[in-house]
């Protein structure tokens, strides 16, 4: 019936009805659009009015307060820079997400920068099948990652942000999104590994559409477009004979991964160059503290294995780094006359370990002479990264320093050669080279090697040197005392070795905490150092037990190892125990010892003003007979004024000269420097100004020129009522820079002062032949410096013959202008 009625209805009427309904809808939609448009116009008018009133108010306030124009220009420039910086970052993040969502074929055809690792490295295999599996498991990965972030990363971030007065950090929501991470390639190792483990490297790339919100200091914020890229190593060990066939996993990044993200919400105001670097640096530090070498993230898969196997530290060696100097760095500071100099410092990174030199102000040729030592867990894969920065002042907590370049060194090359002395051209810089000296130190189980290690540190005379490495595994504590009768304690353990201290995590409400954590310490001297353990309660801060362990005890153990066992705790109950294991290794170098030649007199440094050593010839050593005159000062007093004279006595002795005598072609004597044996030198020198005794030596290993000022003899006394107050100052020529100035102490009222002070210059062997050492003897009697302050001067040419120590007397000459 309905069908017939419909059929009997004229088609025209249906069209008219449809048209009428369309007209009614269009009229209603037009009315709603007009209403919406009028509302939008009103809101735009209000916003525009508020902006104009605010602008007028700001201008009026600036004029009323007599503010500078910079108060207006500064924020505008900052906003423009911020917008451009965020635009570039957004383009990069969108590109990264496009790569993450595309398959390998699309990525390669697009010729993007972030190509899979297997494209560049033939030993890395494709893993597209594995990416499909990860995509299927991604929802479950979301749940595990949320638990991991809340339990481990959130407390660490809260502690780190409190240093910047940002309190109460808490994650509100964690959603990793629908885009899983990708594996760009996998490499499985089948050589030089244990039969009881499987090692593989995964090229991890994550650029997902995550949705993470948090609160800090009452502000709400969020993180979007989180990105991470790095080489992840997975170690499967030990292999067992029952399901799951693998006892556990060690997961860690070989080097710091690249991390980037975008801030949203109220904290978006901090998303500026400088401010945002703080949060990014904190996030990188927390990731590094968890799973960047030497830190590893263990996952236990079978209850049949001990946790110590997965969590015990296992370093392969130690890399000793000497950052000597840099040359011709970029000029970043702007002065009135244009580009000035820079204030450079260096940052070294080996995995999660970071070291920083001091800042040398106002120079492009800094000399740091900085030493550090990094523990290496995988010498075949780890890198040493050196970054140079120009320090700039800024607001507290901001990072305003300008990059001066960077360099990367493979640890494997240094370990293979034992030592590297490198001048490296900086990358990402227009100009600049840096001088590094790298030494690979193996780990020895013989305590007899400690003697050589201690001798080496004494020769280097650097306070931050170490001779051994100590590895601890803290399993648990038992029967700790209960600080309060009502509640159980929250114990944690602190360990201190020398100047280094570390602590375990806090275990809540127990007197039998289980930590199962590994620690590694560098030891300066096992003969004198000790380990100090303290168990503390986080609630009360009270001490629940302590232990002191002398490291010399390990010298009596087989392979310097102590297996896992309980140790009694003092200040606790009689049954309180700390369960742990430890082993020590001595740092050993395979380098030949530096050829230290005994100091000899009269080794023949005769020439002056010539920097070429090609004309020099070596005369074979032979025993010579020469008289040695010893001068003993005699003091007579007349009228209360000391009169200094010299009494000479001569002895003829036979001196066996083991050091070859060096001669050179005649050279012009620009300053009249005369270097003779004492027997043929007059008591006051050739010019009647006295003599100075020096020791000069160049250390190839340390890249240092060592100068010892022993004494000055027979300074002429022109006025008995005005005895000089002598001191010695040194400069390196031809520049005579302030950085090369050295000065001895002042000796009061003395014509034969004894200093015995040593000075060092960091200088490469190649530069040695182009430098001269200016040594000036002065007196401090005069109020202001003038020519009357100078008592005498010598200028010594430097060359590579100084690798053999030279000790001699030099006749003081008049000051050279």
Descriptive account of the structure:
The chain is α+β, with helices and mostly antiparallel strands. The protein has five domains: 2-67; 100-311, no CATH class; 318-444, C2 domain (Immunoglobulin-like), CATH 2.60.40.150; 468-588, C2 domain (Immunoglobulin-like, Sandwich), CATH 2.60.40; 600-614 and 661-811, C2 domain (Immunoglobulin-like). The strands form nine sheets. Strands 1, 2, 3, 4, 5, 6, 7 and 8 form an eight-stranded antiparallel β-sheet that branches. Strands 9, 14, 17, 18, 19, 22, 25 and 26 form an eight-stranded antiparallel β-sheet that branches. Helix 6 crosses helix 7.
Number of discrete domains: 5
Q: Quote the distance from N terminus to C terminus.
A: 126 Å
Protein structure class: alpha+beta
Q: Report the major sheet.
A: 8 strands, antiparallel
Backbone shape: globular
Biased composition (Low complexity): 610-628
Pfam families: C2 (PF00168), SMP_LBD (PF17047)
Organism: Nicrophorus vespilloides (Boreal carrion beetle)
Keywords: Calcium, Lipid transport, Lipid-binding, Membrane, Metal-binding, Repeat, Transmembrane, Transmembrane helix, Transport
